[in-house]
Write a structure and sequence with these properties.
- It is built from eight helices and eight strands.
- The chain has 343 residues and is of the alpha+beta class.
- The chain folds into three domains: 127 residues, Serine Threonine Protein Phosphatase 5, Tetratricopeptide repeat (Alpha Horseshoe), CATH 1.25.40; 66 residues, Immunoglobulin-like, CATH 2.60.40; 114 residues.
- The strands form three sheets. The chain has a three-stranded mixed beta sheet.
- A hairpin with a 6-residue loop joins strand 4 and strand 5.
- It starts with a helix and ends with a strand.
């Protein structure tokens, strides 16, 4: 099996060498007859073809294609185009193969022989099996199209060739939303692609608002109303606190009366009762009740007075912008309370 493979490879290499040798010999003769190249250009042309043949025979297809293209630049003809297409096919660059082989079949300078045309046509048909042809229409028509980040090369008929695989298409224009598509190329298909870009939404511009200069003490009406409402809430809070203190004072007073009655029974027990053994405990509870009653009562009165003062201050109309506002501060102590107003 290995021997057969070696023989086939040798035959293929021999066939390629004979084919390329024929290209070189024929090309050289026609160049002199038709184009009358200078001796220096003719030497470079023959040298490029000879080097290209060696690289192609060594399966260095990238180097061979570069040399074929260099020869084609010196003397463009159908034979060099066919050689470029053959190297591109071996490199699996089927888009380049389709372009070069298609051009070789219609090139009039040094046209292909019948056998060469048959070979080129067969290789072209195989290359097209791995290429999709796209007809792309984008609205607006002057939108920019990028495929895989590059501007695509269009064919003479306006179509775009893409090799098999996945490609990213992007269409954009100033004032429009960018649109992207993923293209899956399977080969051998002709596809029509139509895209319409949407305009970017117009953002309404906000009118320039005039700014008013206010003095440092000036206060907007909304803030003044908010603070006035806040002062009203604080006044109501003081009254609620005073009510709670008053309830606490009532409870402490009730405890005071109860313990006072118990102390009287302990000191003058009714007939038939034994001596009182917890007079000191009852006395202590009564004293605590007395202190709590006095403290909560004073606190209730204090909180009520503070609430009245705050309500009065909030009911006064807000001062002019140039007038400094006043504030009321109160502190509660064990022996009483202290309030001060700043102006």
């Amino acid at each position: 099996m290995n021997r057969v493979t070696t023989i086939l490879r040798a035959r293929c290499g021999l066939r390629a060498r004979l084919l390329m040798a024929f290209v070189i010999a024929a090309s050289a003769g026609v160049v002199r007859a038709e184009e009358a190249l200078s001796p220096d250009a003719d030497a470079k042309y023959r040298s490029s073809l000879k080097e290209a043949l060696a690289e192609y025979d060594a399966s260095h297809f990238e180097e061979a294609r570069i040399l074929f293209r260099r020869a084609h630049e010196i003397y463009p003809n159908a034979r060099t185009l066919r050689s470029i297409g053959m190297a591109s096919f071996e490199l699996r660059d089927y888009v380049a193969a389709v372009r070069a082989l298609s051009a070789a079949l219609v090139e009039s300078r040094k046209p292909l022989s019948l056998d060469q045309r048959t070979h080129a046509q067969g290789l072209l048909d195989r290359s097209r099996m791995f290429v999709d042809v796209y007809t792309i229409k984008v609205t607006p028509a002057d939108a920019r199209i990028l495929i895989d980040g590059r501007v695509p090369e269009s064919e003479p008929d306006g179509t775009v060739l893409l090799g098999f695989g996945t490609h990213n298409l992007e269409a954009s224009k100033a004032g429009f939303l960018v649109r992207t598509l993923v293209l899956n190329v399977r080969g051998g298909e002709h596809k029509d692609l139509a895209m319409t870009l949407e305009r970017k939404p117009v953002v309404a511009s906000q009118p320039a608002s005039s700014t008013l200069t206010q003095s440092p003490q000036a206060q907007p009406p909304a803030e003044a109303a908010s603070e006035s409402a806040g002062d009203g809430h604080w006044g109501a809070g003081w009254f609620f606190a005073a009510g709670g203190a008053a309830l606490a004072a009532g409870g402490a007073g009730a405890l005071w009366l109860f313990q006072n009655k118990e102390l009287s029974r302990c000191r003058t027990p009714p007939p038939g009762n034994g001596p009182c053994n917890n007079e000191s405990t009852i006395l202590g509870l009564r004293n605590v009740a007395v202190g709590a009653t006095v403290a909560t009562g004073v606190g209730a009165v204090t909180l009520a007075v503070i609430g009245i003062l705050n309500r009065d201050s909030s009911s006064v109309s807000s001062p002019a912008p140039s007038t400094q506002q006043s504030s009321l501060s109160c502190a509660v102590y064990v022996s009483g309370f202290l309030c001060a107003r700043t102006f």
